[in-house]
Specification:
130 residues; alpha+beta; SH3 type barrels; five-stranded antiparallel β-sheet; 2 helices
Amino acid sequence: MDSLTLIMLAVLAVLVFFMFRNGRKRKKDQEALQATMVPGADVMTNFGMYGTIIAIDEEANKVELQIAPGVVVEIHRQTIARVVEPVVEDVPEDSSVDSIDSLTEPEFGQRVTDADTDTDTTEQPKKGDA
């Protein structure tokens, strides 16, 4: 055999090795997800819907998911992408308000009305007005 054939076979062997490795890793991750899927768990589906698991039907491979109070949908078990962990914000113990400016500062995305700003809001003459 020539060296080019040996290199091609080596590359093919490496590709096959990584395919099997990724398949085993994906299977292990899926099994870990299935173990954490229990009634009462908050989950997110593959299509971005959040809800709480009400019941799991192992035989039919279905999950009853409550997406709003009183609204329960039935989805395939494999469409659950992940279990959502509650976000806990760390608040420092000495978190006191330093100044009154922090109370009036708008949050990101919050609309600010003209009365809340200190800018001049007088009307400018329009084009054509003399």
